[in-house]
Design a protein that fits this description.
The chain has five helices and five strands; from the N terminus they run H-E-E-H-E-E-E-H-H-H. About 50% of the residues lie in helices and about 15% in strands. Strand 3 and strand 4 form a beta hairpin. The strands form two sheets. The protein has a three-stranded antiparallel beta sheet, covered by helices on one side. It has a two-stranded antiparallel ribbon with strand order 1-2. Helix 1 packs across helix 3, helix 1 crosses helix 5 and helix 2 packs across helix 4. It has one domain. With about 180 residues, it is of the alpha+beta class. Keywords: Disulfide bond, Signal. Belongs to the canopy family. InterPro entries: CNPY, DUF3456, SaposinB_dom.
Length: about 180
């Protein structure tokens, strides 16, 4: 009987730890998805010819015969950013999961580089579960925070990942000390 009570106490103790582990996994996933999303958006923006523009404003003709149309850089236009948000989460299939051996926190890193350079994939888990979870989290963030993403990315700014993923959305409230990765 005593062994049964010990097993029950151990099971209760483990069950109490499980929600914290699941919550941390979810937080790591959403933080990683947000950071990867911003990285991908910034990379896509950088690929657009800076001379490319788009006309914004009203195409109606004013009583004086003029139009209220202005040309703005296409790369950071709302139209371009909205288009990017529609398809950017597909890039999550190019990411894998890396676990920090000291903290057991998960982070997400590219497993396929943009320019074809060899990547260090030691300790990176790359499978369908990881990519589908990351893609789903990315799509949720892109939908829920579309206005914030467009607001932050429509102007060139520094530390967008930290400002958006940590300060504005609290998706990475634990991650203010995550090293900045470069694509």
């Amino acid at each position: 009987m005593r062994g049964w009570m010990l097993c029950l106490a151990l099971a209760v103790a483990l069950a109490s730890l499980l929600p914290a582990a699941v919550a941390r996994r979810s937080q790591d996933l959403h933080c990683g998805a947000c950071r990867a999303l911003v990285d991908e958006l910034e990379w896509e923006i950088a690929q657009v010819d800076p001379r490319k523009t788009i006309q914004m404003g009203s195409f109606r003709i004013n009583p004086d015969g003029s139009q209220s149309v202005v040309e703005v850089p296409y790369a950071r236009s709302e139209a371009h950013l909205t288009e990017l948000l529609e398809r950017v989460c597909e890039k999550m299939k190019e990411y894998g999961e890396k676990t920090d051996p000291a903290t057991h926190r998960k982070s997400y890193v590219r497993v396929i580089s943009h320019d074809g350079t060899k990547m260090d994939l030691s300790g990176v888990k790359f499978d369908g579960d990881v990519t589908s979870s990351l893609k789903f989290a990315c799509e949720s963030i892109a939908e829920e925070y579309e206005d914030e993403l467009i607001e932050f990315l429509s102007h060139e700014a520094e530390n967008v990942k930290d400002r958006l993923c940590s300060k504005r959305t609290d998706l990475c409230d634990h991650a203010l000390h995550i090293p900045h990765d470069e694509l």
